[in-house]
Specification:
alpha/beta; Aspartate Aminotransferase, domain 2; seven-stranded mixed beta sheet; three-stranded antiparallel beta sheet; 13 helices; 12 strands; globular
Length: 365
């Protein structure tokens, strides 16, 4: 049956999702497990989002709004973007897939930093396109290297900002200089999935750049600080012709009704966003202290809700921590097999990581 499958997927390794807590408990006989493997937020959906979902549940016999009209309209008005420039998809990852489908033919190219978010590579490979991976420089995007990797068949260049899994971001001047030098035939996809966590004056808001007239696509998501990772709803802005092209390849009912309702209801609680941002910064600092206390230096400064650390063998440490009841993310699929990524949890979860790491590194069980 080998002729049944497209040759472009032969070498693909499926994205490795974090193992469910219940499965780890059952397999290892653990009473309590802390999951710090996926960069979801540790806090639940906002109360208004829960209420909106309860109302939406009563009409689940109907298909969702295929165009996400209400959510797109609200986002467009709030951010000063034309409705035709708004894209809503099944998470930021869903929009990455739409952009690839709309632009890439077999033999085309994308350029991205590496290690970085695997979907940039996977979505290209599925379509028979090539991903040119440029090694990071001191855990941060080498923007000059990205420019040098661009060729005549390059369609997309991804800048993960901050980068997943390292948490680092290029500064304002460096990013603007990069965009100024980008060839006209290439679309920059500025992935700002962790935007709401950031409080750094040198960080560039991609929407500001877009409103200035730069031809870029900017990605955002409700999966992180808003606590809606399980619903899969993200959004982005792009030039109208790009957004229209993505609508041609989008599935008819891509984002569930509950997801649209919850996202729309989550937009009016800036105080809770600020509270979660502050808690995340405190937790991120505590995780850094824990890592350094055990001789592990996290990459940084990290701006998101996670830390990256070279540990000499990410898979081995992941497995040992898992036996202690703490799940972190091994990074083979991200291009960093020697490292782990640890997501900021609640204060209690962060301390549980510290205890588990101490046990593992000291040989105590």
């Amino acid at each position: 049956m080998t002729d049944l499958f497209r040759a472009s997927i032969d070498g693909l390794v499926p994205y490795e999702p974090g193992k469910p807590v219940e499965a780890v408990q059952r397999e290892l006989g653990l009473d309590h497990v802390v999951k710090l493997a996926s960069n979801e937020g540790p806090f639940p959906p906002f109360p208004a989002a829960l209420e909106a979902m309860q109302r939406a549940v009563l009409e689940l016999n109907r298909y969702p709004d295929g165009g996400a009209w209400a959510l797109r309209t609200e986002l467009a008005e709030r951010h000063g973007i034309a409705f035709e420039e708004l894209i809503v998809g099944a998470g930021a990852d869903g929009i990455i897939d739409l952009l690839a489908q709309a632009t890439l033919d077999p033999g085309d190219e994308v350029v991205c930093g590496w290690p970085s978010f695997p979907s940039y590579v996977l979505t290209a490979a599925k379509l028979g396109a090539e991903a040119r991976r440029v090694p990071l420089r001191e855990h941060t995007h080498d923007l000059d290297g990205l420019l040098a990797a661009i060729g005549p068949r390059t369609k997309l260049v991804y800048v993960c900002h901050p980068n997943n899994p390292t948490g680092t971001a290029n500064g304002r001047a460096e990013l603007l200089a990069f965009l100024d030098r980008l060839p006209e035939h290439v679309l920059c996809v500025l992935d700002q999935a962790y935007f709401e966590y950031i409080d750094d004056p040198d960080y560039v808001d991609g929407l500001d750049l877009f409103r200035e007239g730069r031809r870029i696509a900017v990605l955002r998501t409700f999966s992180k600080i808003y606590g809606l990772a399980g619903l899969r709803v993200g959004w982005g802005v792009a030039p109208a012709d790009v957004a229209t092209a993505t609508s041609k390849v989008r599935r008819a009912f891509d984002v569930a009704a509950t997801a649209q309702a919850a996202a729309l209801a989550s937009l009016d609680d800036p105080q809770e966003i600020a509270r979660r941002r502050e808690l995340n910064a405190t937790g991120r600092g505590r995780l850094a202290e824990i890592l350094r206390g055990h001789g592990l230096e996290p990459a940084g400064p990290s701006l998101g809700n996670f830390l990256f650390a070279d540990v000499g063998g990410g898979r081995e440490l992941f497995e040992r921590l898992q036996r202690e009841g703490v799940i972190v993310r091994p990074l083979d699929g991200f291009g960093a097999p020697e490292a782990i990524r640890v997501t900021v949890g609640t204060p209690e979860e962060n301390e549980a990581f510290g205890v588990a790491l101490g046990h593992v590194l000291s040989g105590v069980s």
